[in-house]
């Protein structure tokens, strides 16, 4: 269970700002691209969690990113909505326009400061970079009252030059200074010392907020982020499920719960309502197609599971013997077998609420029908089964292409053959094809019915629950002309789930084509 601070500790607990970059840095994970509708829904979830700052995208990267930041800025009223911009004036102008209507808007601009980045990436001399810091922050400050400046690759930057850049950014009007561990190179004591040094030696440092932004290349992102706060930072940049470039970012859920559970040693607090954490984690997993590992801290399927007899005995006597926090504190609920084909709509609605879902009437009706269909196939419907079918419905949405029927001939005597009917904008089209195995046959049949040039980059299957009647949850990732889209589906029939996931990916890919701007998407770099 979390350790409550003493009255004296509670009075001195400093507020730490939680800055979520799931939609910006998290989306830079290969294959993690999100649609506009998915970003809008995620923004609502993050605001309900009371995340302080939502970095909604990189407006100059594409029209799609610009539109996402602009629309999120219009619907979010409590959290600060932030857009990222390089040091170029065109980037900053585009970002300023995107956040212009936000109730609380922020421009986040950055430039590299390490020797290796300045030489090979920017091809600029230090004095040129220093000049760009002043110019970019000044321009951003003229467009927006809240400006954050980041020193990309700060942990590999020569300290004297880093101090000069920070001083210039503060003088130009930055109110938040971010010192990223861009390549996950630092370690906790070193990272904390950097903040102490900067805060002690930069004029005006006492008037701004310092921020961490840690990558997980050495598995130290969360530890470094917490150490940065101990060194004086009061904002942590992080992402749901730790997604992001390469090995990912510091995981929001781990940071928030570390500060909450270890309040006895970490006199800090956040405003995050932690009971929404699992819901956010599952939604991000569903829309990106990145499964959460079973033993993932806080949100993993096994995070509160106990199999050892010794552990089970202790848990039965007192949960505090093996659990340092309550599952319900993060929105986790214990799986049970109370739902079945005789369960009614009211019980189903209450179950969804317990699992973190608030659905509108139409979505509820559709989910309830899916649940009834599943209950007819399975003897027991577990919580994870319900999560899978609801996420499947959310991922599919109003798809232009839908699977109507599928029949597959498989076995040791080939060839394997699939007979498929899909609806394209309401019009049925049938095709059949053979393949090297039943899944290959299914995908070939889809290709015959819906001709396309997309390349399969990922096909992944896992069982949602135990047993031979378990639902299979399938993720498919497709790539075409540099665009990547992921599809997901769940069904007790693995081949049906595979077909639906592939078709869902095709629909998402088509949506990317329609909304993306010409040219390749710009990568931010940190």
Structure description:
With 526 residues, this protein is α/β, with parallel strands linked by helices. The protein has three domains: 7-288, TIM Barrel (Alpha-Beta Barrel); 333-395; 398-515, 2-Layer Sandwich (Double Stranded RNA Binding Domain), CATH 3.30.160.270. The chain contains 17 helices and 16 strands. A hairpin with a 2-residue loop joins strand 12 (416-424) and strand 13 (427-435). The model is unreliable at 1-11 (pLDDT under 50).
State the CATH architecture of the largest domain.
Answer: Alpha-Beta Barrel
* Uncertain parts: 1-11
Structural class: alpha/beta
Give the amount of beta strand, in percent: 15-25%
DSSP helical segment count? 17
State the CATH topology of the largest domain.
TIM Barrel
Mean pLDDT: 88
Give the overall form. globular
Number of structural units classed as domains: 3
- CATH 4th-level superfamily of the largest domain: Aldolase class I
Largest sheet features:
8 strands, parallel, barrel
Alpha carbon gyration radius: 25 Å
Distance between the termini: 35 Å
State the name of the first-level CATH class of the largest domain. Answer: Alpha Beta
Give the fraction of residues assigned to helices.
40-55%
In short:
This protein has 17 helices and 16 strands. It is α/β, with parallel strands linked by helices and 526 residues long. β4, α4 (89-98) and β5 (105-112) form a beta-alpha-beta unit.
